Amino acid sequence: MTSKSGDPDLGGNSARPGSDTNDPHADQPIRLVGTALPEAIGAVILLHGRGSSAEDILNLAHAMFQPRLAYLAPSAANNSWYPLTFLSPREKNEPWLSSALSKVAAAVQLANHSGIPAERIMICGFSQGACLASEYVATHPERYAGLMVFTGGLIGPPDMALNYSGDLQDTPAFLGSGDPDPHVPWTRVQQTADVLAGMNAQVTLRRYPGRPHTVGGDEIQFGRKMIAQAFQ
C-alpha cells in the first residue's frame, strides 16, 4: 500500500494555498491524488499523524480506494501538527493548533472551489491527524459525507469541559482505537463519541482491546464501507 505520484490508479499532484508568516503550516503543500477535483464526485481529506507525512497517510487512499473521488492530504510543517500531546492545555499548542485547523479548512476550500460541498467531503485522520479531524468537524459543524477518527479524540486537557455546539445533521462518524493506547486514552475517545452524538452525528464506536497504535483491518473495512455508502 504505497502511494506514488506516478500510480496509474491514483495519479497525483500538489497544490499550495497562500502563505501567512504567522501560520506555521501555511506554506506546506496539500497532496492530491485520485480524480482531479473538477471531475470528482466527492473528496476525502486525509490527515497524517505526528512524525508521518501526507505521502504516508495516502496509503489509506489505496486501502479504501473508490473511483471518481479526489483524495487530499495536507502536510504539516516538520511532520507535526502541534508540538505537545493533544491532552496538553490548548494554549501551549498554539499557534500550531490554529494553523493546523486552518490547513484543514484550506483543503475543504479547495474542494468547495471545485464545486464539491461539505456533504460530499469526508474527513479522516490517524493519531494526531485523528485528533485534528475530530476537532475540525466539531468546531466547523455542518453536514459532511463522513468523519473517520482512527485513534484520536477532541483536543484539550483531561479536565477541560468539552463544550461544543452545532448540528452535524446526521453526519456518519466512526471512532476506533486500541485500548490501552500509549497516546490516546480510551476515555477521551468515548467522550469524543458522546460529544459528536450530542451534535447529531450518527456515531459508530469500536474498541480494540490490546491493539497496538495503528489502523487495523476492521477499521479499513469499515472505512471502505463508509466511503462506498457516502458516494453512491
List keywords for this structure.
232 residues; alpha/beta; Rossmann fold; 8-stranded mixed sheet; 8 strands; 21% strand; globular; disordered N terminus
Structure, described:
- With 232 residues, the chain is α/β, with parallel strands linked by helices.
- The chain has one domain (12-230): Rossmann fold.
- It has 6 helices and 8 strands.
- Strands 1-2-4-3-5-6-7-8 form an 8-stranded mixed beta sheet, sandwiched between helices.
- β5, α4 (128-139) and β6 (146-150) form a beta-alpha-beta unit.
Shape: globular
End-to-end CA span: 24 Å
Largest sheet: 8 strands, mixed
- Tell me the fraction of residues in β-strands, as a range: 15-25%
Compute the number of structural domains: 1
Order of helices and strands: EEEHHEHEHEEHEH
CATH architecture: 3-Layer(aba) Sandwich
Low-confidence stretches: 1-19
Output mean pLDDT: 92
Which class do the helix and strand fractions yield? alpha/beta
Layout of helices and strands:
Blueprint lengths: L11 E4 L14 E5 L7 E6 L6 H4 L1 H5 L5 E6 L21 H18 L7 E6 L1 H12 L6 E5 L21 E8 L6 H13 L3 E8 L7 H14 L2
Parallel strand pairs: 3-4, 3-5, 5-6, 6-7, 7-8
Antiparallel strand pairs: 1-2, 2-4
Helix pairs in contact: 3-4
